[in-house]
Design a protein that fits this description.
Layout: H1 12-16, E1 46-49, E2 55-56, H2 57-66, E3 82-84, H3 100-103, E4 118-122, H4 145-151, H5 157-160, E5 173-177, E6 183-188, E7 198-199, E8 201-204, H6 207-222
Antiparallel strand pairs: 1-2, 1-8, 3-4, 4-5, 5-6, 6-7
Length: 238
């Protein structure tokens, strides 16, 4: 048999043994999760817990989604959203409420001036003292603490006059997002500390949280609170 003038023929036994080629083993398919997801495993099943009040995770996401996007540059004092520096505590020994992984490393999008920045959005609990609203108006400048305190005193004319627009109180709670509007967490001003923030804990949604979430949905649909109010928080004066 000369080189190049005949084909080399192989029998299956020459490769896989006398018994012939081995069958391909059956590979188990990955388990596909059920389409029905328990709400306890979604944002709808959790809330942010703080000493200044709790916030439902699903409601926080909706508020941020409906608010203006993160600005490339500062918009001025009292205008939100604004840059959150993530530097808390003493200047010579600060701590970060959000980790570097959560805040995003600069350099991922170097053409964007917002690259690697975090932003804070006022978010409020549903129960607010009269005449303050339970929502923050992002089209207006935030009220100062002095304006807010004065307006909640019964002897103040803002309190007595229902036709006057109440102060645009930002409250003590903030949602913190990346430049793309993804909520990274919630922070709050501790009692008596108007400048510093602490991070809120995440916990399962409780009965009061479910009631507040239901009231928020009603407000979005009807642009007004339901009456009677839903949930255990219904006894809290508005």
């Amino acid at each position: 048999m000369g080189c190049g003038d005949s084909k080399l023929e192989l029998n299956p036994g020459d490769i896989s043994g006398a018994e012939g080629p081995r069958p391909v083993a059956d590979v188990p398919r990955p388990r596909v999760p059920n389409d029905k997801v328990n709400s306890a495993n979604t944002p709808a099943g959790f809330q942010y817990n703080t000493p200044r009040g709790n916030l439902q995770m699903d409601r926080v996401n909706q508020i941020v989604q409906n608010a203006p996007g993160a600005p490339a540059h500062g918009l001025g004092r009292g205008v939100f959203p604004k840059h959150y520096r993530n530097q808390e505590g003493p200047r010579d020994n600060p701590h970060h409420n959000l980790s570097g992984f959560e805040s995003g490393r600069p350099g991922q999008d170097p053409g964007d001036p917002r690259d690697g920045r975090l932003y804070e959005y006022p978010v409020k609990t549903m129960a607010q003292p009269q005449p303050l609203k339970n929502t923050f108006d992002y089209t207006r400048r935030a009220a100062t603490l002095a304006q807010t305190i004065r307006a909640t005193r019964p002897d103040d004319e803002d309190f007595r006059d229902p036709t006057r627009e109440p102060p645009n109180d930002p409250g003590a709670l903030r949602a913190v997002t990346n430049k793309d509007g993804q909520v990274m967490g919630v922070v709050y001003h501790p009692e008596g500390n108007r400048n510093g923030y602490e991070r809120a804990r995440i916990e399962p949604l409780d009965a009061q949280g479910r009631g507040e979430q239901a009231r928020y949905r009603d407000q979005q649909l009807a642009s007004s609170s339901t009456w009677p109010r839903r949930g255990p928080e219904s006894s809290v004066p508005q």
